[in-house]
Amino acid sequence: xxxxxxxxxxxxxxxxxxxxxxxxxxxxxxxxxxxxxxxxxxxxxxxxxxxxxxxxxxxxxxxxxxxxxxxxxxxxxxxxxxxxxxxxxxxxxxxxxxxxxxxxxxxxxxxxxxxxxxxxxxxxxxxxxxxxxxxxxxxxxxxxxxxxxxxxxxxxxxxxxxxxxxxxxxxxxxxxxxxxxxxxxxxxxxxxxxxxxxxxxxxxxxxxxxxxxxxxxxxxxxxxxxxxxxxxxxxxxxxxxxxxxxxxxxxxxxxxxxxxxxxxxxxxxxxxxxxxxxxxxxxxxxxxxxxxxxxxxxxxxxxxxxxxxxxxxxx
Length: 315
Known about the structure:
By secondary structure, this protein is of the alpha/beta class.
């Protein structure tokens, strides 16, 4: 997440909830295919394996994965190779910021209505101070694993699925803004929703849902309600992550967030556990944002929420 400038639900539950959201019905006469109705439970071990790779990349490249550095390009190459092998159509979009070359990675899953695109994204860059495993390896790894789950299940949604990994978010959402600004008016109109995932494994986590587009917000809240988790509206990241350029362009946006450098209150600790009086992520934008700076439970729940929203909103 960009620095601010002052001034698992059970299969039965997921099937039922997804059916309600999509207007479908489960009947004995004409059962809907389970793969079309229910998102898969993403193995958190798979998500953590991607994080381990991002950590290794940072370690081998000066300790970070920042814009214009070798660690960023190696991170992008890792994600792209996984997607290419899974059957996605990938595109690298190049731009320049601070006299350094940056890259966005866009991955389209073949099929679905090209005039109704459900897009999910995360920023792949870290700050120069550290490897950026929560910020934002966590979102990047979960978006990647959701895309790979689409391929594993051969999911064929009604809407078209697109996934993105943004460059230079830490410099002011440069990559995502470049992408949005270079869309034609017609192309912008095809995006029915953009879902953003920036920091979803914070070590002292909260469960925050963007209160932007009502349909997207309700989808995420339905998932967390099924787990018995109360959520709060996300305010810490307003205007500070890659949904902002989409929102400014009039595209419906939503997402989830587990907290950055704001302090967890006593009421939030009573609701979610963890430690009150301590930041949601005390290693935010620091060298200690490593593989050990992840809460596995939050990462697991939030990755599954991501998949649930993609399946629900694209059916």
